[in-house]
Design a protein that fits this description.
The complex is a heterodimer of chains A (202) and B (140).
Chain A: H1 30-47, H2 51-76, H3 86-102, E1 108-111, E2 118-123, H4 145-157, E3 162-169, E4 178-185, H5 187-201
Chain B: E1 11-15, E2 21-26, H1 33-56, E3 61-68, E4 71-77, E5 83-88, H2 93-111, H3 125-139
Antiparallel strand pairs in B: 1-2, 1-5, 3-4, 4-5
Helix pairs in contact in B: 2-3
Classes of the chains: A alpha+beta (202), B alpha+beta (140).
């Protein structure tokens, strides 16, 4: 009598396989995800009293995703080094996390002119918002708040607490606005970074 | 079934983000209360040393970060800033590194559980069993 191998879902979470190979990573169809996302937004909308609360709820969902994604991505890349520096971490989000989620790197990574603890990651055509149409009454809502939550989760679990928000920036050249994720690091992060830089130089 | 490891002192702790232990296991079988408290104390005290080493190095494995009499504390930090601490008395560094890497895989799987946050204690029995098995196999 042959003993059937238990299906993946019957296994304890400890025993489940996690694909390490780039080719084995399971992907989800965009339409399935868009459907899930639209349901998520209407679920949050029912329970939120204002647009900021709606964005907050999406942000919290993204936060949990971000915490886990950081560990998973590092594992998949077989990373043997961590990234204790701000710039390294941001570059990792820009060029490794973005392709993992959306299939292309983020379009831009800038440091704000006014303050040196503010950074911006921009995406010209956020995959998330492609099927979201925003009515006039919700004109200040940015679907990118989910992505802002993901970024906040990744930064927070890596030890860089920050305030992350998503904004639309109108572009003169195209009809679609660019989604910009604004990251403002806490003072403790900047102090630590300054101490590290000083130690390296001196 | 308890296996008595001759002359080995081994306590393994996973410390979460808020600096509290989310998993501790005594890998050499039951000990008396005094030594247990001592081990916990030494591990806790070494957290400061781990924090220092954590931010100035890009490595995952931090080797031995602290000493207390003849006890060594070796640390390993995951990319998500969870710290693995092992209290031992002179095991080989490579064996410990291998052990930590394997535990990181198990830890990752636990973390992927959506009901598990960075500060919940790990109470899963299979995790416990696997860690003990790994310790027996790799740390002797």
């Amino acid at each position: 009598m042959s003993r059937a191998v238990p299906s993946k879902h019957a296994l304890n979470i400890i025993d489940r396989p996690i694909a390490r190979n780039k080719l084995d990573i399971p992907t989800v169809s965009l339409s399935a995800f868009a459907y899930l996302f639209s349901e998520l937004i209407s679920y949050a909308m029912d329970r939120a009293a204002s647009i900021t609360e709606l964005e907050d709820r999406l942000d919290r969902v993204g936060y949990d995703v971000g915490c886990r994604m950081l560990e998973l991505l590092s594992y998949r890349e077989k990373a043997t080094r961590r990234k204790p520096e701000i710039l390294d971490m941001l570059k990792h989000i820009h060029s490794a996390a973005w392709p993992y989620m959306f299939g292309k790197t983020a379009d831009d990574l800038q440091q704000a002119n006014a303050a040196d603890d503010e950074y911006m990651i921009s995406d010209n055509d956020l995959l998330l918002g492609r099927f979201i149409s925003i009515p006039k009454s919700y004109s200040s809502f940015v679907p990118g708040s989910l992505v802002a939550g993901i970024v906040r989760g990744m930064l927070d679990s890596a030890g860089f607490p920050a305030r992350v928000s998503a904004h639309f920036v109108e572009q003169p050249s195209s009809s679609k606005p660019t989604t910009t994720i604004l990251i403002k690091f806490d003072a403790s992060v900047m102090q630590r970074q300054a101490a590290l830089d000083a130690a390296k130089r001196g | 079934m308890s296996v008595v490891v001759p002359g080995g002192v081994l306590t393994f702790v996973i410390v979460g983000q808020q600096d509290h232990p989310i998993y501790e296991v005594d890998l050499t079988g039951p000990k008396e209360q005094q030594t247990q408290y001592l081990h916990q104390f030494v591990l806790h005290a070494s957290l400061d040393a781990v924090d220092e080493a954590m931010w100035s190095s890009k490595e995952l494995h931090l080797k031995t970060v602290d000493r207390f009499n003849n006890l060594f504390v070796t640390a390993y930090v995951t990319p998500g800033n969870a710290r693995f601490l092992l209290l031992h008395d002179g095991k080989s560094d490579d064996a410990i590194r291998g052990f930590f890497t394997e535990v990181q895989e198990l830890y990752l799987r636990i973390m992927l559980n959506p009901f598990h946050t960075a500060s919940t204690r790990i109470t899963s029995k299979p995790f416990d069993q696997k860690v003990k098995m790994l310790a027996k196999r790799m740390l002797g």
